[in-house]
Specification:
The chain is α/β, with parallel strands linked by helices. The chain folds into two domains: 12-208; 228-280. The chain contains nine helices and eight strands. The strands form two sheets. It has a six-stranded mixed sheet with strand order 1-4-5-6-8-7, sandwiched between helices. Helix 7 (239-255) packs antiparallel against helix 8 (260-267).
C-alpha cells in the first residue's frame, strides 16, 4: 500500500471505491450469499447458513476503554461466530496482532452479556484480511490456535481461532480460489466466478440511489469519531497518561491526513511535537 499524500486528504470518491475500502467491503459482505461464500473459501468447509448478529456491530466497553466497530459479525448454523475485518492500514510494531486479542476479549464479553456461562461461549473465528505483508511475509494465510508449549499437539480447546490473510504472500500455500480473492483485494480482476460475482455486486451497489449519500455520511461520521476520540478518555490519571492518549489521537488524525493546525487544535499538542510524531511513523504532514 503506498503512503498517503496530502492530495488524498479528502474523502475517496464514490466511483473509486473497491472491495478493499471499508464501506464497500461492509456493503458487499451484507449480501448473505457473498459473505457465506467468503467464509467457505477461507475455511475450506461447507456452511449451510449464516445469520447477522447485528448490522454494523459496535461493541463498547463498559469501562473506560476503546470500543470496536466490526466489519462483518455473523454466526453459522452451528453457532460459530465469525468476525471478518479488512485491515487497510498496517499498525506499527505488533499492534495488528494485539488488536485480534482485544477484539476477541470484546466479542467474548458481548456474547456473555446475552447471559451465557463461560462454558457456553461460542466458538469464534476472527479473520483479518491484510493488503500488506505479515509475519515472515512468505505465506498468504496464517492460522493461530492456543496450544501447549510443552506439547504442541495439545490444543487448549477454548474455541478461539485467529486467521491472517495477506495479499503479499510469496509461496504456494493456499487454494487458488482464496488467492483469486486476495488478488482482487489488490485490484487484480480474474475470471474466478466468486471474484466476478463480487465485482458485479460492487457495480450494482454504486448505482443504488442514495447509497453515495450514505457513504459520505458514514465517512464523515468515522472522521468525527476519530477527531474527537480523545474526549472520550478518562479525565483522571497522570498527565503522562493524558499525553499518551493525545498522541494516539494525533497519530490517527495524521493517518487521516488532517491538517497539522487542526490536530494541534483538538489535541492541544505543539506543532513541533506533532511533526516529530509524524517523522517517527514516516507520515506526511499536511500544513
Amino acid at each position: 500500500m503506498t503512503k498517503t499524500t496530502a492530495k488524498s486528504q479528502k474523502i475517496k470518491p464514490w466511483e473509486e471505491l473497491t472491495i478493499s475500502d471499508d464501506y464497500m467491503f461492509k456493503a458487499v459482505m451484507s449480501r448473505k450469499r457473498l459473505c457465506k461464500k467468503l467464509i467457505e473459501r477461507i475455511l475450506q468447509i461447507p456452511v449451510r447458513d449464516i445469520r447477522y448478529m447485528e448490522e454494523e456491530k459496535v461493541i463498547k466497553a463498559d469501562y473506560a476503554g476503546k470500543g470496536i466497530r466490526l466489519d462483518v459479525y455473523v454466526a453459522d448454523e452451528k453457532n460459530t461466530v465469525y468476525n471478518i475485518e479488512m485491515q487497510m492500514r498496517k499498525p506499527t510494531g505488533d499492534g495488528l496482532y494485539k488488536r485480534t486479542r482485544y477484539y476477541q476479549s470484546m466479542i467474548d464479553a458481548d456474547l456473555l452479556k446475552i447471559g451465557r456461562d463461560y462454558d457456553e461461549l461460542n466458538p469464534t473465528i476472527i479473520v483479518f484480511i491484510c493488503p500488506f505483508a505479515v509475519f515472515d511475509a512468505k505465506r498468504h494465510k496464517y492460522t493461530f490456535r492456543n496450544r501447549c508449549d510443552e506439547d504442541t499437539n495439545l490444543e487448549l480447546g477454548d474455541g478461539a481461532v485467529k486467521i491472517f490473510l495477506s495479499t503479499e504472500g510469496e509461496i504456494d500455500d493456499i487454494d487458488p480460489k482464496i488467492k483469486a480473492f486476495l488478488n482482487y483485494v489488490k485490484g487484480k480482476i480474474s475470471n474466478d466466478t466468486f471474484v466476478q460475482e463480487i465485482d458485479d455486486e460492487i457495480h450494482k451497489i454504486k448505482k443504488i440511489e442514495g447509497e453515495r449519500v450514505k457513504y459520505m455520511t458514514y465517512e464523515l461520521k468515522i472522521k468525527e469519531e476519530r477527531k474527537y476520540a480523545f474526549e472520550e478518555g478518562r479525565e483522571e490519571g497522570r498527565e503522562e497518561g493524558k499525553t499518551e492518549e493525545k498522541k494516539e489521537t494525533a497519530l490517527g488524525m495524521l493517518y487521516d491526513n488532517m491538517p497539522i493546525c487542526s490536530i494541534a487544535k483538538y489535541t492541544k499538542l505543539s506543532l513541533d511535537y506533532i511533526r516529530d510524531l509524524a517523522a517517527k511513523h514516516n507520515l506526511t504532514v499536511v500544513e
